[in-house]
Design brief:
The structure holds two protein chains of two kinds. Chain A has helices spanning 35-46, 107-115, 137-147, 154-158, 160-164, 171-181, 189-196, 210-214, 221-241, and strands at residues 3-11, 21-29, 65-68, 71-74, 88-91, 98-100, 103-104. By secondary structure, chain A is of the alpha+beta class. Chain A has two domains: 3-104, Roll (Ubiquitin-like (UB roll)); 107-241, Alpha-helical ferredoxin (Fumarate Reductase Iron-sulfur Protein, Chain B, domain 2). Chain A has a five-stranded mixed beta sheet. By secondary structure, chain B is an all-alpha fold. Chain B has a single domain, classed as 3 helical TM bundles of succinate and fumarate reductases (Up-down Bundle). Classes of the chains: A alpha+beta, B mainly alpha. At the A-B interface, α5 and α9 of A face α1 of B. Bound molecules: iron/sulfur cluster and FE2/S2 (inorganic) cluster. FE2/S2 (inorganic) cluster (FES) binds next to loops of chain A.
Protein backbone atom coordinates (compact mmCIF):
# COMPACT_ATOMS: atom_id res chain seq x y z
CA UNK A 1 0.00 0.00 0.00
CA UNK A 2 1.40 3.37 -0.88
CA UNK A 3 0.29 6.83 0.15
CA UNK A 4 -0.78 9.52 -2.23
CA UNK A 5 0.31 13.10 -2.49
CA UNK A 6 -0.89 16.01 -4.61
CA UNK A 7 1.45 17.63 -7.12
CA UNK A 8 0.62 21.16 -8.24
CA UNK A 9 2.45 21.41 -11.52
CA UNK A 10 2.98 24.60 -13.49
CA UNK A 11 1.68 24.28 -17.04
CA UNK A 12 2.53 26.87 -19.64
CA UNK A 13 2.58 27.20 -23.40
CA UNK A 14 3.95 30.70 -23.98
CA UNK A 15 2.62 30.85 -27.56
CA UNK A 16 -0.94 30.19 -26.44
CA UNK A 17 -1.23 31.36 -22.84
CA UNK A 18 -0.29 34.64 -21.25
CA UNK A 19 0.83 33.10 -17.97
CA UNK A 20 1.46 29.74 -16.30
CA UNK A 21 -1.42 27.94 -14.60
CA UNK A 22 -1.31 25.07 -12.13
CA UNK A 23 -2.76 21.61 -12.62
CA UNK A 24 -3.23 19.24 -9.69
CA UNK A 25 -2.39 15.56 -9.92
CA UNK A 26 -2.62 12.83 -7.27
CA UNK A 27 0.38 10.53 -7.38
CA UNK A 28 1.29 7.49 -5.28
CA UNK A 29 4.57 7.59 -3.41
CA UNK A 30 6.74 5.55 -1.10
CA UNK A 31 9.68 6.76 0.93
CA UNK A 32 11.97 6.16 -2.05
CA UNK A 33 9.91 8.24 -4.51
CA UNK A 34 11.58 11.32 -5.84
CA UNK A 35 9.65 14.33 -7.13
CA UNK A 36 10.82 13.22 -10.57
CA UNK A 37 9.12 9.85 -10.06
CA UNK A 38 5.92 11.74 -9.37
CA UNK A 39 6.32 13.68 -12.62
CA UNK A 40 6.99 10.47 -14.52
CA UNK A 41 3.85 8.96 -13.04
CA UNK A 42 1.85 11.94 -14.25
CA UNK A 43 3.36 11.76 -17.72
CA UNK A 44 2.94 7.99 -18.06
CA UNK A 45 -0.50 7.55 -16.48
CA UNK A 46 -2.34 10.81 -16.12
CA UNK A 47 -1.35 13.43 -18.65
CA UNK A 48 1.10 12.71 -21.47
CA UNK A 49 1.25 16.35 -22.51
CA UNK A 50 3.38 17.39 -19.51
CA UNK A 51 6.95 18.22 -20.51
CA UNK A 52 10.09 18.45 -18.37
CA UNK A 53 13.76 17.48 -18.67
CA UNK A 54 15.50 14.59 -17.02
CA UNK A 55 17.96 11.90 -17.87
CA UNK A 56 20.10 10.12 -15.30
CA UNK A 57 17.79 9.97 -12.24
CA UNK A 58 20.88 9.99 -10.04
CA UNK A 59 22.06 13.55 -9.59
CA UNK A 60 24.70 13.42 -12.31
CA UNK A 61 23.33 14.91 -15.50
CA UNK A 62 22.03 18.14 -14.01
CA UNK A 63 18.98 18.34 -16.27
CA UNK A 64 16.11 17.86 -13.81
CA UNK A 65 16.41 21.13 -11.89
CA UNK A 66 13.05 22.66 -11.00
CA UNK A 67 11.55 24.81 -8.37
CA UNK A 68 9.98 22.59 -5.68
CA UNK A 69 7.82 24.49 -3.21
CA UNK A 70 9.71 27.59 -4.29
CA UNK A 71 13.22 26.22 -3.84
CA UNK A 72 15.56 25.21 -6.67
CA UNK A 73 16.09 21.45 -6.44
CA UNK A 74 17.22 18.46 -8.46
CA UNK A 75 13.89 16.68 -8.72
CA UNK A 76 15.58 13.27 -8.91
CA UNK A 77 17.27 13.90 -5.57
CA UNK A 78 14.31 15.45 -3.75
CA UNK A 79 11.87 13.10 -2.09
CA UNK A 80 8.12 13.36 -2.02
CA UNK A 81 7.98 11.92 1.48
CA UNK A 82 9.81 15.00 2.77
CA UNK A 83 6.88 17.13 1.62
CA UNK A 84 4.10 14.95 3.05
CA UNK A 85 1.22 15.51 3.42
CA UNK A 86 1.66 17.90 0.49
CA UNK A 87 0.69 19.48 -1.77
CA UNK A 88 4.01 19.83 -3.61
CA UNK A 89 4.31 22.73 -5.99
CA UNK A 90 6.56 22.06 -8.98
CA UNK A 91 7.54 25.00 -11.17
CA UNK A 92 10.25 25.69 -13.72
CA UNK A 93 13.54 27.08 -12.40
CA UNK A 94 13.23 30.78 -11.64
CA UNK A 95 15.22 33.48 -13.45
CA UNK A 96 15.02 31.75 -16.85
CA UNK A 97 12.63 32.17 -19.74
CA UNK A 98 10.11 29.32 -19.90
CA UNK A 99 9.91 27.31 -23.12
CA UNK A 100 7.06 25.11 -22.05
CA UNK A 101 5.68 23.71 -18.77
CA UNK A 102 8.75 22.90 -16.65
CA UNK A 103 11.36 23.45 -19.35
CA UNK A 104 13.45 26.60 -19.28
CA UNK A 105 15.70 28.14 -21.88
CA UNK A 106 19.30 27.38 -20.88
CA UNK A 107 20.88 29.21 -23.82
CA UNK A 108 22.06 32.16 -21.74
CA UNK A 109 23.94 29.89 -19.34
CA UNK A 110 25.47 27.88 -22.19
CA UNK A 111 26.78 31.03 -23.85
CA UNK A 112 28.24 32.25 -20.56
CA UNK A 113 29.88 28.94 -19.92
CA UNK A 114 31.93 28.97 -23.12
CA UNK A 115 33.06 32.52 -22.43
CA UNK A 116 35.09 31.33 -19.44
CA UNK A 117 36.72 28.54 -21.48
CA UNK A 118 35.91 25.63 -19.17
CA UNK A 119 38.56 23.35 -20.62
CA UNK A 120 42.31 23.03 -20.30
CA UNK A 121 44.01 25.81 -22.22
CA UNK A 122 47.63 25.27 -23.25
CA UNK A 123 49.94 27.61 -25.12
CA UNK A 124 51.62 24.60 -26.67
CA UNK A 125 50.38 21.07 -26.24
CA UNK A 126 52.97 18.61 -25.04
CA UNK A 127 53.74 16.09 -27.81
CA UNK A 128 52.11 12.71 -27.23
CA UNK A 129 55.51 11.04 -27.15
CA UNK A 130 56.28 12.87 -23.91
CA UNK A 131 53.42 11.11 -22.20
CA UNK A 132 50.60 12.31 -20.02
CA UNK A 133 50.39 15.41 -17.85
CA UNK A 134 51.06 14.30 -14.33
CA UNK A 135 49.32 15.61 -11.28
CA UNK A 136 49.79 14.92 -7.59
CA UNK A 137 46.82 14.31 -5.28
CA UNK A 138 47.49 17.74 -3.72
CA UNK A 139 47.31 19.40 -7.12
CA UNK A 140 44.04 17.60 -7.77
CA UNK A 141 42.63 18.76 -4.44
CA UNK A 142 43.20 22.38 -5.49
CA UNK A 143 40.31 22.29 -7.94
CA UNK A 144 38.46 19.05 -7.28
CA UNK A 145 35.55 20.63 -5.46
CA UNK A 146 34.80 22.94 -8.39
CA UNK A 147 34.99 20.03 -10.82
CA UNK A 148 31.93 18.49 -9.16
CA UNK A 149 29.62 21.00 -10.87
CA UNK A 150 26.97 19.31 -13.03
CA UNK A 151 25.70 22.50 -14.71
CA UNK A 152 22.28 22.14 -13.16
CA UNK A 153 21.82 25.92 -12.89
CA UNK A 154 20.17 25.75 -9.49
CA UNK A 155 22.63 28.42 -8.40
CA UNK A 156 21.47 30.78 -11.17
CA UNK A 157 17.92 30.18 -10.15
CA UNK A 158 18.73 31.03 -6.53
CA UNK A 159 20.89 34.08 -7.29
CA UNK A 160 19.03 37.37 -6.76
CA UNK A 161 21.69 39.27 -8.69
CA UNK A 162 21.22 37.10 -11.76
CA UNK A 163 17.47 37.58 -11.34
CA UNK A 164 17.88 41.35 -11.42
CA UNK A 165 20.61 41.56 -14.00
CA UNK A 166 20.91 38.66 -16.46
CA UNK A 167 24.18 40.11 -17.74
CA UNK A 168 25.89 38.83 -14.57
CA UNK A 169 28.02 35.89 -15.63
CA UNK A 170 26.81 33.94 -12.61
CA UNK A 171 27.96 31.45 -9.98
CA UNK A 172 28.61 28.20 -11.88
CA UNK A 173 30.51 29.89 -14.71
CA UNK A 174 32.86 31.49 -12.18
CA UNK A 175 33.26 28.27 -10.20
CA UNK A 176 34.05 26.43 -13.43
CA UNK A 177 36.55 29.07 -14.44
CA UNK A 178 38.25 28.43 -11.10
CA UNK A 179 38.08 24.69 -11.77
CA UNK A 180 40.50 25.28 -14.65
CA UNK A 181 42.43 28.25 -13.25
CA UNK A 182 43.50 26.15 -10.28
CA UNK A 183 44.50 23.16 -12.40
CA UNK A 184 48.28 23.03 -12.73
CA UNK A 185 48.00 21.77 -16.33
CA UNK A 186 46.09 24.85 -17.41
CA UNK A 187 47.49 28.07 -18.85
CA UNK A 188 44.26 29.92 -19.56
CA UNK A 189 43.95 32.01 -16.38
CA UNK A 190 44.81 35.20 -18.26
CA UNK A 191 42.10 34.66 -20.89
CA UNK A 192 39.53 33.95 -18.22
CA UNK A 193 40.60 36.96 -16.18
CA UNK A 194 39.60 39.23 -19.06
CA UNK A 195 36.05 37.94 -18.97
CA UNK A 196 35.72 37.58 -15.21
CA UNK A 197 37.23 40.90 -14.23
CA UNK A 198 34.60 42.79 -16.22
CA UNK A 199 31.95 44.50 -14.19
CA UNK A 200 29.45 41.77 -15.18
CA UNK A 201 31.96 39.12 -14.13
CA UNK A 202 32.84 38.62 -10.50
CA UNK A 203 32.15 42.21 -9.50
CA UNK A 204 28.44 41.78 -10.06
CA UNK A 205 28.37 39.44 -7.06
CA UNK A 206 27.50 41.00 -3.71
CA UNK A 207 28.06 37.78 -1.76
CA UNK A 208 24.46 36.89 -1.03
CA UNK A 209 25.55 33.27 -0.75
CA UNK A 210 22.31 31.62 -1.93
CA UNK A 211 24.17 29.80 -4.71
CA UNK A 212 26.24 27.84 -2.22
CA UNK A 213 23.18 26.96 -0.15
CA UNK A 214 21.27 25.41 -3.04
CA UNK A 215 24.16 23.67 -4.81
CA UNK A 216 23.45 19.93 -4.75
CA UNK A 217 27.12 19.11 -5.32
CA UNK A 218 28.71 21.27 -2.61
CA UNK A 219 30.68 23.21 -5.17
CA UNK A 220 30.50 26.38 -3.05
CA UNK A 221 30.34 28.83 -5.95
CA UNK A 222 30.11 31.77 -3.52
CA UNK A 223 33.46 30.76 -2.05
CA UNK A 224 34.94 30.44 -5.53
CA UNK A 225 33.79 33.95 -6.38
CA UNK A 226 35.18 35.49 -3.20
CA UNK A 227 38.50 33.78 -3.71
CA UNK A 228 38.63 34.90 -7.30
CA UNK A 229 37.79 38.48 -6.33
CA UNK A 230 40.92 38.58 -4.23
CA UNK A 231 43.01 37.16 -7.09
CA UNK A 232 41.54 39.65 -9.55
CA UNK A 233 41.88 42.60 -7.17
CA UNK A 234 45.54 41.82 -6.50
CA UNK A 235 46.11 41.37 -10.21
CA UNK A 236 44.54 44.70 -11.03
CA UNK A 237 46.58 46.43 -8.29
CA UNK A 238 49.70 44.91 -9.82
CA UNK A 239 48.84 46.13 -13.28
CA UNK A 240 48.03 49.52 -11.77
CA UNK A 241 51.43 49.90 -10.16
CA UNK A 242 53.36 48.31 -13.01
CA UNK A 243 51.24 49.22 -16.04
CA UNK A 244 53.71 48.00 -18.60
CA UNK A 245 54.99 45.13 -16.52
CA UNK A 246 54.51 41.39 -16.82
CA UNK B 1 44.51 43.34 -21.34
CA UNK B 2 42.36 43.81 -18.28
CA UNK B 3 39.92 46.65 -18.66
CA UNK B 4 40.33 49.30 -16.01
CA UNK B 5 37.40 50.01 -13.76
CA UNK B 6 37.52 51.02 -10.11
CA UNK B 7 35.61 48.01 -8.81
CA UNK B 8 38.68 45.99 -7.69
CA UNK B 9 40.02 48.93 -5.68
CA UNK B 10 36.62 49.66 -4.14
CA UNK B 11 36.21 46.01 -3.28
CA UNK B 12 39.65 45.91 -1.63
CA UNK B 13 38.69 48.91 0.51
CA UNK B 14 35.37 47.21 1.26
CA UNK B 15 37.02 43.94 2.34
CA UNK B 16 39.76 45.60 4.32
CA UNK B 17 37.12 47.78 5.97
CA UNK B 18 35.07 44.72 6.82
CA UNK B 19 38.00 43.02 8.46
CA UNK B 20 39.32 45.93 10.51
CA UNK B 21 35.94 47.19 11.58
CA UNK B 22 34.82 43.71 12.61
CA UNK B 23 37.99 43.38 14.70
CA UNK B 24 38.23 46.79 16.29
CA UNK B 25 34.87 48.54 16.17
CA UNK B 26 32.95 46.34 18.63
CA UNK B 27 35.62 46.82 21.33
CA UNK B 28 35.83 50.55 20.77
CA UNK B 29 32.07 51.00 20.74
CA UNK B 30 31.71 48.83 23.82
CA UNK B 31 34.35 50.83 25.71
CA UNK B 32 33.73 54.38 24.53
CA UNK B 33 30.06 54.08 23.62
CA UNK B 34 28.76 52.05 26.57
CA UNK B 35 31.18 51.00 29.29
CA UNK B 36 32.75 54.42 30.01
CA UNK B 37 29.71 56.67 29.57
CA UNK B 38 27.48 54.33 31.59
CA UNK B 39 30.10 54.02 34.28
CA UNK B 40 30.55 50.22 34.00
CA UNK B 41 34.27 50.90 33.89
CA UNK B 42 36.22 53.85 35.17
CA UNK B 43 37.16 55.91 32.13
CA UNK B 44 40.82 56.81 31.71
CA UNK B 45 41.66 60.45 32.40
CA UNK B 46 40.86 62.57 29.35
CA UNK B 47 44.39 63.99 29.07
CA UNK B 48 45.69 60.44 28.79
CA UNK B 49 43.27 59.64 26.00
CA UNK B 50 44.27 62.87 24.27
CA UNK B 51 47.94 62.06 24.64
CA UNK B 52 47.27 58.67 23.12
CA UNK B 53 45.43 60.11 20.11
CA UNK B 54 48.19 62.69 19.68
CA UNK B 55 50.65 59.88 19.15
CA UNK B 56 51.15 59.72 15.36
CA UNK B 57 50.97 55.92 15.28
CA UNK B 58 47.66 55.84 17.16
CA UNK B 59 46.34 58.60 14.93
CA UNK B 60 47.26 56.62 11.81
CA UNK B 61 45.58 53.48 13.16
CA UNK B 62 42.42 55.41 14.06
CA UNK B 63 42.41 57.22 10.75
CA UNK B 64 42.78 53.98 8.77
CA UNK B 65 40.05 52.36 10.82
CA UNK B 66 37.67 55.25 10.16
CA UNK B 67 38.49 55.55 6.44
CA UNK B 68 38.22 51.83 5.78
CA UNK B 69 35.01 51.51 7.75
CA UNK B 70 33.51 54.40 5.81
CA UNK B 71 34.45 52.84 2.48
CA UNK B 72 33.07 49.54 3.67
CA UNK B 73 29.81 51.29 4.42
CA UNK B 74 29.81 53.16 1.12
CA UNK B 75 30.23 49.98 -0.92
CA UNK B 76 27.49 48.17 0.99
CA UNK B 77 25.19 51.13 0.82
CA UNK B 78 25.71 51.53 -2.91
CA UNK B 79 24.98 47.88 -3.64
CA UNK B 80 22.02 47.86 -1.29
CA UNK B 81 20.54 50.79 -3.16
CA UNK B 82 21.29 49.20 -6.55
CA UNK B 83 19.81 45.83 -5.84
CA UNK B 84 17.58 46.39 -2.84
CA UNK B 85 15.70 49.32 -4.32
CA UNK B 86 16.44 48.29 -7.89
CA UNK B 87 17.50 51.73 -9.00
CA UNK B 88 20.59 50.75 -10.92
CA UNK B 89 19.88 53.37 -13.59
CA UNK B 90 20.87 55.98 -11.00
CA UNK B 91 24.20 54.23 -10.53
CA UNK B 92 26.38 57.30 -11.10
CA UNK B 93 24.47 59.44 -8.63
CA UNK B 94 24.48 56.64 -6.05
CA UNK B 95 28.20 56.04 -6.46
CA UNK B 96 28.99 59.75 -6.11
CA UNK B 97 26.81 60.08 -3.01
CA UNK B 98 28.11 56.88 -1.33
CA UNK B 99 31.82 57.24 -1.97
CA UNK B 100 31.52 61.02 -1.75
CA UNK B 101 30.16 60.66 1.79
CA UNK B 102 33.02 58.30 2.63
CA UNK B 103 35.55 60.81 1.30
CA UNK B 104 33.95 63.70 3.21
CA UNK B 105 33.88 61.56 6.36
CA UNK B 106 37.53 60.70 5.90
CA UNK B 107 38.42 64.36 5.48
CA UNK B 108 36.53 65.27 8.65
CA UNK B 109 38.32 62.46 10.52
CA UNK B 110 41.68 63.68 9.22
CA UNK B 111 40.88 67.23 10.30
CA UNK B 112 39.77 66.20 13.80
CA UNK B 113 42.75 63.93 14.34
CA UNK B 114 45.02 66.71 13.12
CA UNK B 115 43.45 69.13 15.60
CA UNK B 116 44.01 66.70 18.44
CA UNK B 117 47.65 66.06 17.64
S1 LIG C 1 27.64 25.22 -8.99
FE1 LIG C 1 26.26 23.72 -8.03
S2 LIG C 1 24.20 24.65 -8.29
FE2 LIG C 1 25.57 25.70 -9.71
S3 LIG C 1 25.37 24.60 -11.66
FE3 LIG C 1 27.14 23.69 -10.58
S4 LIG C 1 26.29 21.95 -9.42
FE4 LIG C 1 24.54 23.24 -10.05
S1 LIG D 1 17.88 13.45 -13.74
FE1 LIG D 1 20.04 13.72 -13.92
S2 LIG D 1 20.45 15.06 -12.23
FE2 LIG D 1 18.36 14.61 -11.95
Amino acid sequence: MSDHITLQIARYRPEQESEPTFNEYEVPYTKESAVLDGLNYVKDRLDGTLVYRWSCRMGICGSCGMSVNGEPKLTCATFLADYAPGPVRVEPLRNFPIIRDLIVDIGDFMRKLVRVKPWIVREVDKPLSEGEYRQTPEQLDEYKQFSMCINCMLCYSACPIYGLDPKFIGPAAIALAQRYNLDNRDEGAGDRMEVLSEYDGIWGCTFVGECTKVCPKHVDPAGAIQRYKLTAALESMKSFFAPRGA
Amino acid sequence: MIRRHPEPLLWMLFSAGGVVSAMLMPVLVLLFGLAYPLGWLTPPASDRVRALVANPLAAIVLFSLIVLSLFHWAHRFRHTLYDGLQIKHLSEVIAVVSYGAAIVGSAVAAYLLWQLS
